[in-house]
Amino acid sequence: MIYVDPKTLERVNQWLTPFFDLATQQTIKEMIAQDPEGLEDSFYKNLEFGTGGMRGVMGVGDNRINKYTLGKNTQGLSNYLKTQFPNEKLQIAIAYDCRHNSKELAGLVAEVFSANGIVVFLFSDLRATPELSFAVRHLNCQCGIVLTASHNPPEYNGYKVYWKDGGQLVPPQDGEIIAEINSLSYTDIKFEANEALISLINSGVDKAFAKASIKNGSFNTSQEAKDNLKIVFTSLHGTSITMIPRVLEEAGYTDVHIVEAQASPDGDFPTVKSPNPEEPEALKMALELADEVGADIVIGTDPDCDRLGIAVRDANGVMTMLNGNQAMAIKTYFLLEQWKKQGKLDGNQFIASTIVSTPMIRKIAEMFNVDYKEGLTGFKWIAKMVKDFPEQEFIGGGEESFAYMVGDFVRDKDAVTATLLVCEIAAQQKNTGSSMYAYLQNIYDQLGFYKEHLISIVKKGKKGAEEISELMKNLRENPFSEIAGSKVIRIEDYSKDKAFNILTGTSEALNIPVSNVLIYFTQDGSKLAARPSGTEPKIKFYISVNSDSEDVLQKKIDNIISHLNMG
Q: Which residues are marked as active site?
């Protein structure tokens, strides 16, 4: 017999009242009889906003994505918008991805907003997430929503909120909205739509977004170089198929080979174990096609088109995956190189990255005498930097998660423009007899060799969340004094907004918003960060090492992995 907490039972009983539809009630009754453990996990807490909004498994209950949890969020957000913009006509843009129920849930969210007297611009079909960020400002909206769960498994969906600047919610707004949502009962949700306030949008916004992407992602590449670049592209059954082929064609790239078996949007992602371009296995079909046609570069995007995986030919002509840090270093270096060539670097520009990403980005900024800003994980923090420093020009920024943002016309990670940028780099390098791989080696020659490694440990459900919490607690209460034989010299604890200098016994404020992240720095220049995911049931360990010799990098990483005893 599975024990169900009394507080959880209270939540369950609320969902068995007449306000909830009969199908929902019937599903709950079946869970009570047949799946009490699943019942506990579905109701023991409310889904929470994390670094990427609210994301979770679809199903009944407070801890699931469904019409009631999304309806309550939307009602709370509607109330909040009215307090923030009391004398304005409220407008909101809504997009959705290829996942199961995304279209239906987007329609439901639109209905609740309209029931609250808010004008809704709803995309007529699935769209890339960066286009939603663009649309918020393009259509003069105060807010935007996209229904997506990025590269999570098929049973997931999610709800990402964007503010009027086109960036995702940041404190204190997210906390204020959560407080408003939590103050509501499900019976406060207004489900009766005002259809007159809902408009479908399509080609007009598409055209404007494509034009802006080409403007920001193009860098004087000759047509000869573009014609000479052979590209393989896969959308991994996601939304990028609606925009990336179009942008590449309009930008002048003529030799693009699409993985047709993965071109149709499909929430089951039938040809991959996981639609995550961070994982080489996801690009297997694209890599096979690349060898078949003799391609120079492979690009694959995740389902909502904000991350991209890249493979290029190494010195031996073998297709090799670039990790997120390597790709970010190449893109950043190229952007600054181009800006310098054009005489546009005047000391008033900045680039940005995150605390768990490679230290190379700071080094690149120093090389070009450009300001470098660093924030917490998540592009909402990079978007906030753009908003907080309007007197400076934002050139580009990214993080280790295979994501990048070029310019400020989109205020979120953007695989559309980043794909074009990568093709510009590859085309220009090939046209001079070089390659992207050689370009990366040149950066290493100037800055030293860096290598990163990510360990992700999945811990599902209530028990998993408790295990992750206990692990972080232990890392704080019993900190490492050395890691893989190298003395720990600095510990940054973002939950306390403190950096501790172990050598001097002193501490200083980090001046970054509080977050559940812990970073160790060692005497030999290695870096180990521990961070529970804000949107997935996992904890991530980020390892970064550097050396003047490339040969010792993997050994350093292996030693740290061995020290962690996490294989």
A: 150
